[in-house]
């Protein structure tokens, strides 16, 4: 039996087994990831005899920025690289979650000492990790944009190698954002210190995984539950045997509130209708979900009426947020969208929601990339 040690060997086996199709963009990226794996594994552990023998901190291996459309294999290649990499002090984290953590660390550092907190925070991270791998780098707010150049410069100078995926090339990050001129040094840093590689090959693997999957299941019975479970595992490339790898998460909502996510993996989240719309929630909650996850599964949507008009109003706001961020929606419900809310306050507004729900089931919508519809239309213009 052949022992597989490198990302390149993993990728070659997947090609040979027919799990993947030949793709020059992927092959070029695999070669770069394989190079980085070798460089990282060649550095002796910190504090070892070899480290002391060389007498200086080893050079930081150059990181990688993988960008491209949805379904082109970015997360899959990140999986292969991260799983194959045999080093201590490595971390993989969703970019949004990481930036929330950074703001928390900066706040704590300011309590401890005066002056710029960025360098001490970067050093803390460098003491913990040699490699940080980010899923879905995206910049949606000025608070992140203002600190990213200094933060990542300090991280790399402190010895941290960065690998990240994104739907956008570096030059399109934070496009048309407030005070974007302060963000431009970060873009220059990405080009200078990371190898930028595009993944825009001919095969959309996400659409392949969704092929044959219904996005709306009614009624919400055991058959629908089984179908939703199967959809989750297909979208995340996991099987029910890997259920222990599916984690819950907590989103921090602006204003100091939090939202519990029962299940999340690789940008896919699962919620119950009761959790999303049966509790006091607003547009900020739903926008945070829509920006954080490219796909959302909602289970147990009931038929609504005058007795639960508040839940219906929240559902309208939720679908607006998901639609505007082009989030892919899979749901189990008591009935079809056009029968969900037949009478009650806000019925007229709900008709727009029905129209959006129907559009969100189309192949054209499912093929869209995740992110602001307004920003995408602006770029297209």
Automatic annotation (TrEMBL):
MF terms (GO), sorted A to Z: ATP binding; ATP hydrolysis activity
Keywords for the protein's UniProt record, in alphabetical order: ATP-binding, Cell cycle, Cell division, Nucleotide-binding
UniProt keyword Cell cycle, yes or no: yes
GO cellular component, one term: cytoplasm
InterPro entries: ATPase_AFG1-like, P-loop_NTPase
Gene3D superfamilies per UniProt: P-loop containing nucleotide triphosphate hydrolases
GO biological process: cell division
Descriptive protein name: Cell division protein ZapE
Organism: Alterisphingorhabdus coralli
Phylogenetic classification of the source organism: Bacteria, Pseudomonadati, Pseudomonadota, Alphaproteobacteria, Sphingomonadales
